[in-house]
Specification:
mainly alpha; 1 helix
Amino acid sequence: MNPLVDQCNNALALLGHTNRQINLTRRDLLRPELRSDYVHLCNHSLPFMSEPFGEDV
């Protein structure tokens, strides 16, 4: 395979991982500000969607 394509794929994977880490950090920073009823929404196992805390919130 073309080395340039491999490098582009690696860059995209790195950007995707970085985006996930930023989102997880943002959830961690928001956790102390939330009422105790909603702290579970900052769980790292909650999948990312178009809305920060899921589609049903």
